Amino acid sequence: MYTLRPVVLLLPLLAACGKDPVVLTGDAVGSCSYESPFSGEPECMEFFDAEIAAAQEVCDGYAAELMVDEPCAVEAVLGTCTYVSDGIQVRTTVEGDDPSKCGSQRFGCETFARGVWTPAANCDGGDEIVVLEDPFPLPERVCVDPLPGEPEGQSEDGQVCTWQVVSGATEEGRHFSDYADCDIIRRQRPYGAAPANARANEDDPRMDDAAYVAEVDWVRDQLRAGSCDCCHSSAAPNGPAIFDAEFEGNLLNQFNDRGLAMAAGWIPTIGFGTYPPEENNGFERSSPEDPYLSIIPTTDQARMMAIFEDELLYRGRTIEEFVDDVYGAGPLDEQLNYKPEQCSEEEGIDKDGVIRWAPGRARYIYVLEKGTQSPTVPPNLDTPEGTIWRVDLPRDGSPVFSESVVYGEVPEGMVQIYPETGAPAELVPGKEYYLYVTADILYPISRCVFVAGERERGGGCSSVESGPAGAVAGLVLGLALAARRRRLSV
Question: Beta partners for 30?
Protein backbone atom coordinates (compact mmCIF):
# COMPACT_ATOMS: atom_id res chain seq x y z
CA MET A 1 0.00 0.00 0.00
CA TYR A 2 1.25 3.46 -0.87
CA THR A 3 1.24 6.21 1.74
CA LEU A 4 0.16 9.57 0.33
CA ARG A 5 1.77 12.60 1.97
CA PRO A 6 -0.24 15.78 2.52
CA VAL A 7 1.68 18.75 1.16
CA VAL A 8 1.57 22.52 0.90
CA LEU A 9 4.13 23.54 -1.76
CA LEU A 10 5.28 27.02 -2.71
CA LEU A 11 6.79 26.85 -6.18
CA PRO A 12 10.57 27.31 -5.78
CA LEU A 13 11.00 29.35 -8.95
CA LEU A 14 10.76 32.99 -9.99
CA ALA A 15 7.24 34.40 -9.86
CA ALA A 16 6.19 35.89 -13.19
CA CYS A 17 5.71 39.66 -13.21
CA GLY A 18 2.16 40.45 -12.15
CA LYS A 19 1.45 36.90 -11.01
CA ASP A 20 1.35 35.64 -7.46
CA PRO A 21 3.17 32.43 -6.55
CA VAL A 22 0.87 29.43 -6.59
CA VAL A 23 0.28 27.37 -3.48
CA LEU A 24 -0.58 23.74 -4.11
CA THR A 25 -2.51 21.95 -1.39
CA GLY A 26 -3.69 18.44 -0.77
CA ASP A 27 -2.14 15.06 -1.32
CA ALA A 28 0.74 14.53 -3.73
CA VAL A 29 -0.67 11.67 -5.78
CA GLY A 30 2.27 11.17 -8.10
CA SER A 31 3.72 12.18 -11.43
CA CYS A 32 4.31 11.05 -15.00
CA SER A 33 6.98 12.04 -17.51
CA TYR A 34 6.55 12.20 -21.27
CA GLU A 35 7.64 14.04 -24.38
CA SER A 36 5.10 16.66 -25.36
CA PRO A 37 3.49 15.59 -28.65
CA PHE A 38 3.11 19.26 -29.53
CA SER A 39 6.35 21.03 -28.60
CA GLY A 40 8.55 17.92 -28.62
CA GLU A 41 9.98 19.01 -25.27
CA PRO A 42 10.24 16.66 -22.26
CA GLU A 43 7.73 17.45 -19.53
CA CYS A 44 6.70 16.03 -16.18
CA MET A 45 3.25 16.43 -14.69
CA GLU A 46 2.45 16.21 -10.96
CA PHE A 47 -1.03 15.84 -9.48
CA PHE A 48 -2.34 17.16 -6.18
CA ASP A 49 -5.63 16.65 -4.37
CA ALA A 50 -6.67 14.01 -6.91
CA GLU A 51 -7.84 10.45 -7.12
CA ILE A 52 -5.19 8.07 -8.41
CA ALA A 53 -7.55 6.83 -11.11
CA ALA A 54 -8.08 10.38 -12.40
CA ALA A 55 -4.35 11.06 -12.50
CA GLN A 56 -3.75 7.74 -14.25
CA GLU A 57 -6.32 8.65 -16.91
CA VAL A 58 -4.44 11.87 -17.69
CA CYS A 59 -1.12 10.02 -17.92
CA ASP A 60 -2.69 7.37 -20.15
CA GLY A 61 -3.43 10.15 -22.64
CA TYR A 62 0.32 10.62 -23.01
CA ALA A 63 1.12 6.91 -23.01
CA ALA A 64 2.98 7.58 -19.75
CA GLU A 65 3.09 5.60 -16.52
CA LEU A 66 1.82 7.23 -13.34
CA MET A 67 4.55 6.99 -10.70
CA VAL A 68 2.44 6.93 -7.56
CA ASP A 69 3.71 9.08 -4.70
CA GLU A 70 6.82 10.11 -6.66
CA PRO A 71 7.55 13.77 -7.51
CA CYS A 72 9.01 14.98 -10.78
CA ALA A 73 12.79 14.67 -10.96
CA VAL A 74 13.91 17.20 -13.57
CA GLU A 75 17.42 18.62 -13.58
CA ALA A 76 17.27 21.42 -16.18
CA VAL A 77 14.01 23.33 -15.75
CA LEU A 78 12.61 26.10 -17.95
CA GLY A 79 9.63 26.67 -15.69
CA THR A 80 6.36 25.29 -14.41
CA CYS A 81 2.72 25.76 -15.32
CA THR A 82 0.28 25.34 -12.45
CA TYR A 83 -3.46 25.15 -12.99
CA VAL A 84 -6.64 23.37 -11.92
CA SER A 85 -8.33 21.03 -14.39
CA ASP A 86 -11.54 19.15 -13.55
CA GLY A 87 -10.84 19.71 -9.87
CA ILE A 88 -7.30 18.36 -10.05
CA GLN A 89 -4.37 20.59 -9.16
CA VAL A 90 -1.69 20.09 -11.80
CA ARG A 91 1.89 21.30 -11.93
CA THR A 92 3.68 20.67 -15.22
CA THR A 93 7.44 21.09 -15.20
CA VAL A 94 8.98 21.88 -18.58
CA GLU A 95 12.47 20.51 -19.01
CA GLY A 96 15.18 22.36 -20.92
CA ASP A 97 17.91 24.97 -20.79
CA ASP A 98 17.15 27.10 -23.88
CA PRO A 99 15.75 30.43 -22.63
CA SER A 100 14.42 31.32 -26.09
CA LYS A 101 11.67 28.76 -25.52
CA CYS A 102 10.42 30.34 -22.30
CA GLY A 103 8.09 32.78 -24.06
CA SER A 104 6.23 30.13 -26.02
CA GLN A 105 5.88 27.97 -22.92
CA ARG A 106 4.51 30.89 -20.93
CA PHE A 107 2.05 31.69 -23.73
CA GLY A 108 0.63 28.17 -23.79
CA CYS A 109 0.36 28.04 -20.00
CA GLU A 110 -1.34 31.37 -19.46
CA THR A 111 -3.49 31.51 -22.57
CA PHE A 112 -4.99 28.06 -22.76
CA ALA A 113 -4.34 26.20 -19.54
CA ARG A 114 -5.41 29.39 -17.69
CA GLY A 115 -2.49 28.62 -15.42
CA VAL A 116 0.32 30.54 -13.79
CA TRP A 117 3.68 30.28 -15.53
CA THR A 118 6.62 30.42 -13.16
CA PRO A 119 9.95 30.72 -15.02
CA ALA A 120 13.13 29.17 -13.74
CA ALA A 121 16.23 31.30 -13.20
CA ASN A 122 17.71 30.25 -16.56
CA CYS A 123 14.87 32.01 -18.38
CA ASP A 124 16.46 35.26 -17.19
CA GLY A 125 13.55 37.40 -18.38
CA GLY A 126 13.21 35.41 -21.59
CA ASP A 127 9.52 34.68 -21.11
CA GLU A 128 8.57 37.77 -23.08
CA ILE A 129 5.82 36.99 -25.62
CA VAL A 130 6.76 38.35 -29.03
CA VAL A 131 6.58 37.38 -32.70
CA LEU A 132 9.51 38.84 -34.60
CA GLU A 133 9.39 36.65 -37.71
CA ASP A 134 6.65 35.20 -39.91
CA PRO A 135 3.58 36.73 -38.28
CA PHE A 136 0.07 35.52 -39.13
CA PRO A 137 -0.52 35.99 -42.90
CA LEU A 138 -3.60 38.19 -43.20
CA PRO A 139 -6.28 37.40 -45.82
CA GLU A 140 -5.39 38.32 -49.38
CA ARG A 141 -7.67 38.10 -52.40
CA VAL A 142 -5.63 36.46 -55.14
CA CYS A 143 -6.81 36.65 -58.78
CA VAL A 144 -5.18 34.46 -61.44
CA ASP A 145 -5.96 33.04 -64.85
CA PRO A 146 -7.72 29.64 -64.83
CA LEU A 147 -5.64 26.52 -65.36
CA PRO A 148 -5.28 25.33 -68.95
CA GLY A 149 -8.36 23.38 -69.97
CA GLU A 150 -10.55 24.89 -67.26
CA PRO A 151 -13.38 27.33 -68.04
CA GLU A 152 -13.08 31.08 -67.63
CA GLY A 153 -13.31 32.44 -64.14
CA GLN A 154 -16.23 34.45 -62.85
CA SER A 155 -14.20 37.58 -62.08
CA GLU A 156 -12.98 40.43 -64.25
CA ASP A 157 -11.11 39.35 -67.42
CA GLY A 158 -12.15 35.75 -66.80
CA GLN A 159 -9.87 35.36 -63.80
CA VAL A 160 -10.45 33.16 -60.76
CA CYS A 161 -10.35 35.13 -57.51
CA THR A 162 -9.86 33.38 -54.18
CA TRP A 163 -9.50 34.62 -50.60
CA GLN A 164 -6.17 33.18 -49.46
CA VAL A 165 -7.18 32.37 -45.90
CA VAL A 166 -8.53 29.38 -43.99
CA SER A 167 -12.08 30.73 -44.43
CA GLY A 168 -11.69 31.08 -48.20
CA ALA A 169 -12.96 29.02 -51.11
CA THR A 170 -12.24 29.14 -54.80
CA GLU A 171 -14.88 28.71 -57.48
CA GLU A 172 -17.04 25.60 -57.40
CA GLY A 173 -15.58 22.79 -59.49
CA ARG A 174 -11.97 23.91 -58.97
CA HIS A 175 -9.33 22.96 -56.40
CA PHE A 176 -8.29 25.52 -53.81
CA SER A 177 -4.67 24.36 -53.90
CA ASP A 178 -4.53 25.32 -57.60
CA TYR A 179 -5.57 28.91 -56.92
CA ALA A 180 -4.09 29.76 -53.51
CA ASP A 181 -0.86 29.14 -51.62
CA CYS A 182 -1.42 26.25 -49.21
CA ASP A 183 1.81 27.03 -47.37
CA ILE A 184 0.17 30.27 -46.24
CA ILE A 185 -2.96 28.42 -45.12
CA ARG A 186 -0.90 26.01 -43.02
CA ARG A 187 0.82 28.98 -41.35
CA GLN A 188 -2.58 30.34 -40.34
CA ARG A 189 -3.54 27.15 -38.49
CA PRO A 190 -1.43 24.42 -36.89
CA TYR A 191 -1.23 21.46 -39.27
CA GLY A 192 -0.34 17.88 -38.50
CA ALA A 193 -1.02 14.56 -40.18
CA ALA A 194 -3.49 12.36 -38.31
CA PRO A 195 -5.06 8.96 -39.05
CA ALA A 196 -8.61 8.60 -40.27
CA ASN A 197 -11.38 6.68 -38.53
CA ALA A 198 -10.59 2.95 -38.61
CA ARG A 199 -13.86 2.22 -40.39
CA ALA A 200 -12.45 3.94 -43.50
CA ASN A 201 -10.69 0.69 -44.40
CA GLU A 202 -13.83 -1.43 -44.16
CA ASP A 203 -15.91 -2.45 -47.18
CA ASP A 204 -19.03 -0.35 -47.48
CA PRO A 205 -21.92 -1.83 -49.53
CA ARG A 206 -23.40 1.67 -49.93
CA MET A 207 -20.68 2.39 -52.48
CA ASP A 208 -22.54 0.10 -54.89
CA ASP A 209 -25.36 2.66 -54.95
CA ALA A 210 -24.67 5.19 -57.73
CA ALA A 211 -26.87 7.86 -56.14
CA TYR A 212 -25.05 7.53 -52.83
CA VAL A 213 -21.65 7.67 -54.52
CA ALA A 214 -22.72 10.84 -56.35
CA GLU A 215 -23.46 12.54 -53.00
CA VAL A 216 -20.08 11.47 -51.57
CA ASP A 217 -18.33 12.78 -54.69
CA TRP A 218 -20.16 16.11 -54.36
CA VAL A 219 -18.92 16.46 -50.78
CA ARG A 220 -15.41 15.69 -52.04
CA ASP A 221 -15.64 18.43 -54.67
CA GLN A 222 -16.91 20.95 -52.13
CA LEU A 223 -14.08 20.14 -49.75
CA ARG A 224 -11.47 20.53 -52.46
CA ALA A 225 -12.83 23.94 -53.46
CA GLY A 226 -12.21 25.20 -49.91
CA SER A 227 -9.03 25.52 -47.91
CA CYS A 228 -9.61 21.98 -46.57
CA ASP A 229 -7.77 21.03 -49.76
CA CYS A 230 -4.53 22.19 -48.13
CA CYS A 231 -4.51 19.94 -45.06
CA HIS A 232 -7.00 17.19 -45.90
CA SER A 233 -5.56 15.93 -49.20
CA SER A 234 -2.28 14.89 -50.79
CA ALA A 235 -1.39 18.59 -50.94
CA ALA A 236 -0.51 18.32 -47.26
CA PRO A 237 3.28 17.79 -46.98
CA ASN A 238 3.16 15.11 -44.27
CA GLY A 239 -0.09 13.48 -45.28
CA PRO A 240 -3.75 14.30 -44.69
CA ALA A 241 -5.12 15.36 -41.32
CA ILE A 242 -7.79 12.77 -40.42
CA PHE A 243 -9.69 12.78 -43.71
CA ASP A 244 -8.40 12.84 -47.26
CA ALA A 245 -10.62 14.50 -49.86
CA GLU A 246 -8.90 12.36 -52.51
CA PHE A 247 -9.65 9.09 -50.71
CA GLU A 248 -10.83 6.50 -53.24
CA GLY A 249 -13.26 4.78 -50.88
CA ASN A 250 -16.14 6.26 -48.90
CA LEU A 251 -14.88 9.67 -47.82
CA LEU A 252 -17.49 9.90 -45.06
CA ASN A 253 -16.15 6.81 -43.33
CA GLN A 254 -12.92 8.66 -42.56
CA PHE A 255 -14.73 11.11 -40.26
CA ASN A 256 -15.08 10.50 -36.55
CA ASP A 257 -18.56 10.96 -35.12
CA ARG A 258 -17.84 14.39 -33.69
CA GLY A 259 -16.50 15.57 -37.03
CA LEU A 260 -19.69 14.36 -38.68
CA ALA A 261 -21.71 16.34 -36.13
CA MET A 262 -19.74 19.50 -36.95
CA ALA A 263 -20.33 18.96 -40.67
CA ALA A 264 -24.05 18.33 -40.04
CA GLY A 265 -24.37 21.59 -38.12
CA TRP A 266 -25.18 19.80 -34.87
CA ILE A 267 -22.20 21.47 -33.18
CA PRO A 268 -21.62 25.22 -33.78
CA THR A 269 -18.28 26.03 -35.37
CA ILE A 270 -18.37 29.81 -35.63
CA GLY A 271 -14.88 30.14 -34.16
CA PHE A 272 -13.21 29.26 -37.46
CA GLY A 273 -14.40 32.48 -39.08
CA THR A 274 -16.15 32.93 -42.40
CA TYR A 275 -16.95 35.23 -45.30
CA PRO A 276 -20.48 35.93 -46.52
CA PRO A 277 -21.16 33.72 -49.57
CA GLU A 278 -21.36 36.70 -51.95
CA GLU A 279 -17.70 37.44 -51.15
CA ASN A 280 -16.54 33.81 -51.19
CA ASN A 281 -17.56 32.38 -54.56
CA GLY A 282 -20.94 31.34 -53.16
CA PHE A 283 -19.53 29.24 -50.31
CA GLU A 284 -20.75 29.71 -46.72
CA ARG A 285 -20.19 28.03 -43.39
CA SER A 286 -21.22 28.40 -39.74
CA SER A 287 -21.24 32.02 -38.53
CA PRO A 288 -22.41 34.00 -35.48
CA GLU A 289 -25.50 34.95 -37.46
CA ASP A 290 -26.28 31.28 -38.24
CA PRO A 291 -24.16 29.06 -35.97
CA TYR A 292 -25.84 25.77 -36.85
CA LEU A 293 -24.57 25.54 -40.39
CA SER A 294 -21.91 23.07 -41.51
CA ILE A 295 -18.26 23.57 -40.70
CA ILE A 296 -17.57 22.73 -44.34
CA PRO A 297 -17.79 25.73 -46.70
CA THR A 298 -20.42 24.83 -49.27
CA THR A 299 -22.66 26.29 -51.94
CA ASP A 300 -25.61 24.23 -50.67
CA GLN A 301 -25.88 24.10 -46.89
CA ALA A 302 -29.11 22.08 -46.83
CA ARG A 303 -27.61 19.35 -49.01
CA MET A 304 -24.31 19.25 -47.11
CA MET A 305 -25.93 19.03 -43.68
CA ALA A 306 -28.41 16.39 -44.83
CA ILE A 307 -25.63 14.14 -46.12
CA PHE A 308 -23.75 14.25 -42.83
CA GLU A 309 -26.90 13.95 -40.74
CA ASP A 310 -27.81 10.79 -42.65
CA GLU A 311 -24.33 9.42 -41.94
CA LEU A 312 -24.75 10.10 -38.21
CA LEU A 313 -28.13 8.38 -38.18
CA TYR A 314 -26.59 5.45 -40.06
CA ARG A 315 -24.10 5.12 -37.18
CA GLY A 316 -26.89 5.27 -34.62
CA ARG A 317 -26.09 8.76 -33.33
CA THR A 318 -28.70 11.36 -32.43
CA ILE A 319 -28.60 15.15 -32.21
CA GLU A 320 -29.47 14.98 -28.51
CA GLU A 321 -26.07 13.43 -27.82
CA PHE A 322 -24.35 16.63 -29.00
CA VAL A 323 -26.62 19.26 -27.45
CA ASP A 324 -24.11 20.18 -24.74
CA ASP A 325 -21.14 20.23 -27.12
CA VAL A 326 -20.80 23.91 -27.97
CA TYR A 327 -17.05 24.12 -28.66
CA GLY A 328 -16.83 23.06 -32.27
CA ALA A 329 -13.79 25.24 -32.93
CA GLY A 330 -11.96 23.98 -29.86
CA PRO A 331 -9.10 26.32 -28.86
CA LEU A 332 -10.42 29.04 -31.17
CA ASP A 333 -13.64 28.97 -29.17
CA GLU A 334 -11.58 29.08 -25.97
CA GLN A 335 -10.19 32.44 -27.08
CA LEU A 336 -13.44 33.74 -28.57
CA ASN A 337 -15.34 33.10 -25.33
CA TYR A 338 -12.55 34.17 -22.99
CA LYS A 339 -13.82 36.10 -19.95
CA PRO A 340 -11.19 38.61 -18.83
CA GLU A 341 -10.37 39.27 -15.19
CA GLN A 342 -9.23 42.55 -13.63
CA CYS A 343 -5.91 43.89 -14.85
CA SER A 344 -2.90 43.44 -12.62
CA GLU A 345 -0.92 46.43 -11.34
CA GLU A 346 1.30 46.11 -14.42
CA GLU A 347 -1.58 46.25 -16.94
CA GLY A 348 -4.11 48.86 -18.02
CA ILE A 349 -4.21 52.49 -19.18
CA ASP A 350 -2.85 55.21 -16.91
CA LYS A 351 -4.46 58.60 -16.34
CA ASP A 352 -2.23 60.10 -19.02
CA GLY A 353 -3.29 57.43 -21.54
CA VAL A 354 -0.13 55.32 -21.47
CA ILE A 355 -0.98 51.68 -22.16
CA ARG A 356 0.77 48.97 -20.16
CA TRP A 357 0.70 45.23 -20.68
CA ALA A 358 2.49 42.08 -19.48
CA PRO A 359 6.00 41.22 -20.77
CA GLY A 360 5.72 41.08 -24.54
CA ARG A 361 5.76 43.18 -27.69
CA ALA A 362 2.51 43.99 -29.44
CA ARG A 363 1.34 43.73 -33.03
CA TYR A 364 -2.34 44.30 -32.25
CA ILE A 365 -3.77 46.61 -29.57
CA TYR A 366 -7.47 46.84 -28.76
CA VAL A 367 -9.50 48.86 -26.29
CA LEU A 368 -13.04 47.50 -26.08
CA GLU A 369 -16.21 48.00 -24.11
CA LYS A 370 -16.36 45.73 -21.08
CA GLY A 371 -18.27 42.57 -21.99
CA THR A 372 -17.23 42.63 -25.65
CA GLN A 373 -16.49 39.25 -27.18
CA SER A 374 -12.74 38.74 -27.46
CA PRO A 375 -11.24 39.40 -30.91
CA THR A 376 -9.87 36.35 -32.72
CA VAL A 377 -9.57 35.56 -36.43
CA PRO A 378 -10.30 37.48 -39.61
CA PRO A 379 -12.35 38.07 -41.61
CA ASN A 380 -15.39 38.38 -39.31
CA LEU A 381 -14.20 37.81 -35.73
CA ASP A 382 -11.25 40.18 -35.43
CA THR A 383 -13.14 43.47 -34.87
CA PRO A 384 -16.11 42.61 -32.65
CA GLU A 385 -18.98 44.97 -31.93
CA GLY A 386 -17.88 46.95 -28.91
CA THR A 387 -14.43 47.77 -30.28
CA ILE A 388 -13.47 51.35 -29.36
CA TRP A 389 -9.92 51.49 -30.71
CA ARG A 390 -7.76 49.08 -32.67
CA VAL A 391 -4.27 49.57 -34.08
CA ASP A 392 -2.31 46.97 -36.06
CA LEU A 393 1.30 46.50 -37.03
CA PRO A 394 2.10 45.67 -40.69
CA ARG A 395 3.86 42.34 -41.24
CA ASP A 396 7.24 43.99 -41.77
CA GLY A 397 6.94 46.31 -38.78
CA SER A 398 8.74 46.09 -35.44
CA PRO A 399 6.50 45.04 -32.50
CA VAL A 400 6.01 47.78 -29.89
CA PHE A 401 6.88 47.70 -26.21
CA SER A 402 4.61 48.23 -23.24
CA GLU A 403 4.39 51.88 -22.15
CA SER A 404 5.35 53.08 -25.65
CA VAL A 405 1.74 53.62 -26.80
CA VAL A 406 -0.70 56.32 -25.73
CA TYR A 407 -4.43 55.72 -26.13
CA GLY A 408 -5.78 57.42 -29.26
CA GLU A 409 -2.32 58.19 -30.69
CA VAL A 410 -1.29 55.85 -33.49
CA PRO A 411 2.33 54.79 -32.92
CA GLU A 412 4.78 55.29 -35.76
CA GLY A 413 4.72 52.25 -38.02
CA MET A 414 1.26 51.11 -36.90
CA VAL A 415 -2.11 51.57 -38.59
CA GLN A 416 -5.43 52.49 -37.01
CA ILE A 417 -8.07 49.96 -38.06
CA TYR A 418 -10.93 51.21 -35.88
CA PRO A 419 -12.37 53.74 -36.06
CA GLU A 420 -11.66 53.97 -39.76
CA THR A 421 -11.16 57.73 -39.49
CA GLY A 422 -10.74 60.18 -36.67
CA ALA A 423 -9.90 59.71 -33.02
CA PRO A 424 -11.51 57.04 -30.85
CA ALA A 425 -14.07 57.97 -28.21
CA GLU A 426 -12.61 59.36 -25.02
CA LEU A 427 -12.52 56.96 -22.10
CA VAL A 428 -14.91 57.85 -19.28
CA PRO A 429 -13.14 58.12 -15.90
CA GLY A 430 -14.36 55.48 -13.48
CA LYS A 431 -15.74 53.25 -16.25
CA GLU A 432 -14.39 49.74 -16.87
CA TYR A 433 -12.94 48.78 -20.25
CA TYR A 434 -11.40 45.68 -21.79
CA LEU A 435 -7.73 45.88 -22.81
CA TYR A 436 -6.67 43.25 -25.35
CA VAL A 437 -3.03 43.22 -26.50
CA THR A 438 -1.54 40.48 -28.66
CA ALA A 439 1.85 39.54 -30.06
CA ASP A 440 -0.02 38.27 -33.12
CA ILE A 441 -3.44 36.97 -34.07
CA LEU A 442 -4.39 34.23 -31.57
CA TYR A 443 -1.29 35.08 -29.53
CA PRO A 444 -2.46 37.28 -26.62
CA ILE A 445 -0.17 39.03 -24.13
CA SER A 446 -2.69 40.82 -21.90
CA ARG A 447 -6.48 40.41 -21.78
CA CYS A 448 -7.95 42.21 -18.79
CA VAL A 449 -10.45 44.76 -17.49
CA PHE A 450 -9.22 48.13 -16.18
CA VAL A 451 -10.86 51.24 -14.73
CA ALA A 452 -10.28 54.39 -16.79
CA GLY A 453 -8.56 57.29 -15.05
CA GLU A 454 -7.81 55.30 -11.93
CA ARG A 455 -4.03 55.02 -11.92
CA GLU A 456 -1.15 57.39 -11.99
CA ARG A 457 1.64 56.32 -14.31
CA GLY A 458 4.06 54.05 -12.47
CA GLY A 459 6.53 51.22 -12.80
CA GLY A 460 5.34 47.96 -14.24
CA CYS A 461 6.29 45.02 -16.36
CA SER A 462 7.73 47.02 -19.24
CA SER A 463 8.90 44.55 -21.86
CA VAL A 464 11.68 46.96 -22.80
CA GLU A 465 13.63 45.33 -19.99
CA SER A 466 12.76 41.78 -20.97
CA GLY A 467 15.23 39.31 -22.37
CA PRO A 468 15.24 37.10 -25.48
CA ALA A 469 12.09 36.75 -27.55
CA GLY A 470 9.77 33.75 -27.44
CA ALA A 471 9.08 31.75 -30.59
CA VAL A 472 5.99 31.88 -32.80
CA ALA A 473 5.83 28.13 -32.24
CA GLY A 474 4.04 29.06 -29.04
CA LEU A 475 0.85 29.39 -31.09
CA VAL A 476 1.03 25.74 -32.02
CA LEU A 477 1.84 24.80 -28.44
CA GLY A 478 -0.98 26.90 -27.04
CA LEU A 479 -3.60 25.57 -29.41
CA ALA A 480 -2.43 22.07 -28.70
CA LEU A 481 -2.67 22.57 -24.92
CA ALA A 482 -6.32 23.46 -25.33
CA ALA A 483 -6.96 20.54 -27.66
CA ARG A 484 -5.31 18.28 -25.10
CA ARG A 485 -7.90 19.30 -22.53
CA ARG A 486 -10.82 19.09 -24.93
CA ARG A 487 -9.92 16.28 -27.27
CA LEU A 488 -10.91 17.31 -30.77
CA SER A 489 -11.92 14.81 -33.40
CA VAL A 490 -12.98 15.62 -36.92
Answer: 47, 68
